[in-house]
Structure formats: structure tokens, C-alpha cells
Amino acid sequence: MDEHDWLAEQFEAERPHLRAVAYRMLGSLSEADDAVQESWLRLSRSDTSGVLNLGGWLTTVVARVCLDLLRSRESRREEPLGVHVPEPIVSREDGIDPEHEALLADAVGLALLVVLDTLTPAERLAFVLHDLFAVPFDEIARVVGRSETAARQLASRARRRVRGAATIPDTDFTRQREVVDAFLAASREGRFDALLAVLDPDVVLRADRGAVQTGASKEVRGALAVAKQFSGRARFAQPALVNGAVGAVWAPGGRPRVVFGFTITRGKIVEIDLLADPARLRQLRLSVLGD
Predict the structure, then answer these.
(1) Torsion of CA 233, 237, 239, 240, to 10 degrees
(2) Domain regions of the chain by residue span
(3) Which of 37, 47, 165, 208 is the most exposed place for a label (fewest CB within 10 A)?
């Protein structure tokens, strides 16, 4: 086996990990795949004879690629019509697509991805690499071009914002399913009181750009207001796993139109992310959805 073939073999072994890092950094499967491919190109052009930990080296390379993409995204972003939509991972309700197991090895729900998108690129990198993948701060410092102390401060600021904004979800799959089933049934049947029963009083509904363009409100707060949005609707939405949690998808003719991401705490829905961006939803592989 020559050196190129050996590098290719080592890279393929690291690919699931690199894709998981890139997805948490970018919130996009397609962009994550692009970042991983770019890291392979950089590997193939580099002299790695002095690299002792190829996995760690590749992690920092893909992190640099993602940092550049985040900075580019930030510089060209206009005032959004809705939240920046993460690219969800949707699977059958009876199991996770094996291809996505590495992506969901650690819970990374839609709510967390939305919160991460409010961080600066450097804060997001520091938080993702250190808190989610245990990369040492001295390595993070080299990626962001700052001191180790500054890298620690970036992660600390990010951690405070994540803890302040993110809600700790229920992890009991059966309980999640019961709540989502109750929500969908009440919505379809127009049972307003039943909808209120599964919504937290301070529930937040967020709609992405695609949903806003079809008439949804950008953000709705409070159980009464959110229940009014759904009463008598969601007639054809079906349960599905959305980023490892119970959610729903509306896919007429097998084509995804709307993904519902739910954050459930203490048996109540506290957040609903309504995703309908056509460019992102086209990335979904509907073959993994249940009927």
C-alpha cells in the first residue's frame, strides 16, 4: 500500500467523526460534507510525515474550514425572515439511519443548533470543539489565532449563552412520543383545550425563512397564541425522528414540505421549530421515513 492509499484509508476511518464535528459547527449536512471533502484535499496536499495524531490534525483542519465558512456566512447574511434553519436529520420513528449514527452519538437537537447559530464563529468553534469533542484549549487557540486564555473565554461566553437559552429536553423516547402524538391528534381534530394541555405556558414557536414565506409568523410566544396557530391543522403530519428526538414531518407524495422539531421538558412542549426551507429540505432522504 502506497502512502496515498494509506492516507485515504485513515481518512475514511475518521470521516464519521469529522462529519459530526462539521455538522455541529455548521448545522448543515451538505455544508458539513463540503467541509469534510475540503479537509481531504488539504490532507492530500500536505506533508504529514511529522504528524503523530492524524485524527487530531484532521479535526483542527475541518474546524478551520468550518470557521471560514461561518465567517463567510456571517459577512453575507442579510436580515433573515426567520431563524437560520438547521438542516435536520430525519429518520424512521423505529430507528436511526445507520449513516447518521455518528452525527447523533451525542444529542444535538434542533433547539441547540438554533442557539449555536446565535454565537460568533469563534465562540461556536470553541464551544463545539471543547464542550462537545473535548479538544484541548491550546489546539483551539491555534485554530482561532488567539491565546489559550482567549480561547477559554470564548468557550465560557458560549457556554453561558447556551445554558441561558437552551432548554434541557426530556430524553425518555416513549414520553416524547406520547406528547407528540397528543399534540398531533389535538391539532388535527381542532381540540383547543387538548392542545393547551401539552404546551408549556411559555412555549415558543419559531419559523424559518421558508415557513415565513408561506405565511407563518416568524416567532410566536405563549400557549394560547401557539395553540391558535395549530388548531385544526397538521392534518397529514406524521411522527418521525428529528435529530434523534421525536418530531414530525409533512411529506405529501414522499416529498418533505415541513419538518416539526419539538423540545419537550417535563412532559410539555416548550419549543417548536417549524422548518420549511425548500433548499434545506431537498437534502432530506425520504427513503428513511416511515409511512
Answers:
(1) -130
(2) 1-77, 111-166, 173-288
(3) 47
Cell numbers for 223, please give them.
400557549
- At residue 286, the pLDDT reads 44
Per-residue H/E/C for 206-227? EEEHHHHHCCCCCEEECHHHHH
Cα dihedral 235→167→276→29 (10° resolution): -130
| Residue 84 confidence (pLDDT) | 61
Q: Which residue has the cell 381534530?
A: 189
Q: Give 214-259 pLDDT, tens digit per residue.
A: 888 889 999 999 999 998 887 888 888 888 788 898 888 777 888 8
First to last CA, the chain: 46
CATH number of 111-166: 1.10.10.10
Q: For 87, what's the count of Cα atoms within 13 Å in the CB-facing half-sphere?
A: 23
Compute CA distances 212 → 25, 206, 218, whole Å. 25, 9, 6
The angle formed by the CA atoms of residues 278, 279 and 283, to the nearest 5 degrees, is 100
Grid coordinates representing 38 are 475540503
CATH architecture of 1-77: Orthogonal Bundle (1.10)
For the domain made up of 173-288, the CATH class stated in words is alpha beta
| Phi/psi-derived region of residue 26, left when phi > 0, alpha when psi is between -120 and 50, beta in every other case | alpha
- What are the pLDDT digits (tens) for 66-117? 999 999 887 766 545 555 667 777 765 555 555 666 666 555 677 788 788 8
Q: What percent of the chain has pLDDT over 70?
A: 86
* DSSP class of 120: -
Report the largest interatomic distance among the alpha carbons of the chain, rounded to a whole angstrom: 68
**Matching CATH topology for 1-77 and 111-166?**
no
pTM of the predicted structure, to 2 decimals: 0.75
